[in-house]
Amino acid sequence: MALYSIGLPKYYKYPIFLLASSSLIDGNLFSATKIAFRPGGRFRRYKMGCTTCTTPKDGVVTGCQSKGGCTSGGCNRMNVMDWFTDIPISFNENFNIVEISFKKGARKGFYRNTSNLELTRGQLVVVEAAQGYDTGEVSLKGELVKAQMKKRKVTERDDTIRNIMRIATEQDIKTVVEIRAKEQETMIRSRAISRSMNLEMKIGDVEFQGDNKKVTIFYTADDRVDFRELVKVYAKEFKVKIEMRQIGARQEAGRIGGIGTCGRELCCSTWLNDFKSVTTQTVRYQNLAINTDKLSGQCGRLKCCLNYELDTYNDALRNFPKHAEKIDTEDGMAWLKKTEILKKQMWYEYDSDRGNFFKLDIDDVKDLIAMNKAGKKPKSLDDFALVEEVKVDESKHEDLVGQVTLATLEEKERKKRRNNSNKNRGGQSGGRNKRK
Q1: What distance in Å separates the CA atoms of residue 271 and residue 280, rounded to the nearest whole number?
Q2: Helix (H) or strand (E) holding 314
Q3: In this structure, is the dihedral angle defined by the CA atoms of residues 63, 66, 70 and 73, taken in order, positive or negative?
Q4: Which of 33, 59, 136, 165 is the most buried (most CB within 10 A)?
Q5: Is 179 in contact with 212 (CB distance < 8 Å)?
Q6: Residues 6+ apart with CB under 8 A from 271
Q7: Closest CA to 109 of 94, 93, 130
Q8: Which of 215, 104, 116, 122 is nearest to 168 (CA)?
Q9: Pairing of strands 2-7, 24-25
């Protein structure tokens, strides 16, 4: 536990201090309590939010009030809403597994709290690693950890679950802040080295271990890469143990993050961690134009969101008639040109009358196909075509009442008098010239 001085803000007349078991890391504050000193020995405690949250005039940092998660996504990624935060009881007191996130949620794992430490969400802890130790943030605890373990198919008796060593000290936090600050420079340098060795690979991200004795370099490559010499150069350059880990293009986009064409943060960097295959057949089912520029995400692959509505389209397609490419009528053969799946409508066009489309309901199409199978022909599709009522939007009509005011009328009258006077003056001067 340490006391940090924040200073004297403009909106508050007393000095502000920070009582924190975990200090600044990645630009955010974790497990911190703000204390305002008042004359007479009184202290006032405030709940501390992240540094990006707004601060009212009374000095209270309200935070985003999302029960431990950050609604803006700036504090952590892949957050899970903790619905049991305000419930004082525990469903299973013997369950001591906690979810720990590293580097703002870029990587998460499950760890045992064998020392029965009193942990809170957002607190920094030191955990065991394969070699040495690592520093992470408590992202989830309690019953929701069971749900996450079941989702990732991890059992409570799994031997890969390591232990939580202790709550992070001030020195541990200082070390993490230093290594996070140099990760960007390390990534740039590692890219330059791999490019100088003419290796067909792309360095996407770099992550240091909490004890600064190991660095994991994430890369993407189309083919297998022989990086044995590269690892030796990296070890000599960075003077730490090097681990190369190949990831896919979607995993790379999830680690880096970004904004999608919808205007929101990428799904893979906020909540999506189960990447399902997206094929061109998915695009065809939804009657979308195959345009790679619009259908591709920042990873260069087809967008994962194309799968979100696929089940809805598949359910709607079950009601559509099969072998409905053409309908034979007395006016000629009509061919299917367009299908609106969600509206359950089909558009047909005659060969002899191009450009004139007939919009039919799928139930009417089924009846027409049944008539053709029975050897009958309908007279024309005009009898079955849907007619849309054109609605006039009266709100777009201009209201001329009130636009003509007395001031505008007077201004027009002045201009009219001025023009008449100019004409009269011109006529008088012309007459005088003639007399001369």
Answers
A1: 24
A2: helix 310-317
A3: negative
A4: 136
A5: yes
A6: 78
A7: 130
A8: 122
A9: unpaired
Q: Using alpha carbons only, what angle is made at residue 59 by residues 56 and 61, rounded to the nearest 5 degrees?
A: 70
Helix 183-196 × helix 170-181 angle, to 10°: 40
Phi and psi of 284, rounded to 5°? -70, -35
Task: Evaluate if pTM is beyond 0.85.
Answer: no
pLDDT at residue number 403: 56
What whole-number distance in Å separates Cα of residue 15 and Cα of residue 12? 8
Q: Give me the helix-helix angle, 228-238 and 183-196, nearest 10°.
A: 140
Q: How buried is 247 (Cβ within 10 angstroms: 0-12 exposed, 13-18 middle, 19+ buried)?
A: middle
Please give the full DSSP string across 330-394, using - where no structure is assigned. TTEEEEEEEEETTTTEEEEEESSSTT-EEEEEHHHHHHHHHHHHTT---S-GGGT---------G
Q: What are the residue ranges in the chain where pLDDT is below 70?
A: 1-77, 84-93, 388-409, 423-436
Name 163's Cβ contacts closer than 8 Å, sequence gap at least 6: 111, 112, 113, 114, 115, 127, 128
Residue 5 host element (H or E): strand 2-7
Strand residue runs (E) in 214-318: 214-220, 241-246
Sign of CA dihedral 400, 406, 407, 408: positive
Sign of CA dihedral 72, 78, 82, 83: positive
C-alpha 101/C-alpha 108 separation (Å) is: 4
Confidence at residue 400, expressed as pLDDT on a 0 to 100 scale: 52
CB–CB of 35/43 below 8 Å? yes
Residue 225 Cα distances to 65, 182, 196, 201, 206, angstroms: 47, 26, 15, 7, 18
**Tokens 């005039």, located at residue:** 57
What whole-number distance in Å separates Cα of residue 296 and Cα of residue 302? 4
State the pLDDT at residue 165: 94
Pull the structure tokens for residue 58: 């009374």
Residue in the block written with tokens 């690892």: 231
